[in-house]
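BUG: 3D viewer hangs when loading the predicted structure for this chain

Environment: internal workstation, default settings.
Expected: structure renders.
Actual: progress bar stalls at 90%.

Input used:
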Amino acid sequence: MVHGGWRIAVLHGVGTVSKDRLDIAGNRAARKYPLRIQLLRVAWAAGRLLFRCIPRPCYAPRRMLLRCFGAKVGRKVNIANTATIYFPWNLEVGDWSAIGEQAYLYNLGRMAIGRKVTISQRAHLCAGTHDFTDPALPLLTPPITVGDQAWICADAFIGPGVAVGEGAVAGARAVVVKDVEPWAVVAGNPARVVKRREMKG
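Structure tokens produced before the viewer hung:
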């Protein structure tokens, strides 16, 4: 299935591959990242330790550290020190957004989070997968976008290539593998629309 120009094989693929056909050696030998990214990964391994050591209320130093590693982080963004950001250089976060305790941003691909967005505790945004129809299981890095004022609730999973619309809500422990329309509330596994989000006042 083609989704936003990417084949999301793990989530949408069909067919089977014999265990005798898998080429694990080929997968491990493949050069998945250029040298520049490999060096950044080594540097960020140290940077991530510093990120975690910055006391929780000290959001500004964490924003500055992420920017040093190429992240585009807006004003008044609050990111918990226990959040995991895999590749800062693939991250963009708009003004006044928040990323909670133990949130996991597996942003092998580009991850764009809008303004006034809440990413709650232990939410998992996964912008990386593999094409399981290819014996070498090549890496795929479909982007994730989260629109302004959206809320990704506790323990929710947002899959590769998914776009969460403006103002949408992914309920607690929802498994979201398809785009979410603006101002929709989705819940369940797989996530389905359960209502519309209507703001009071």
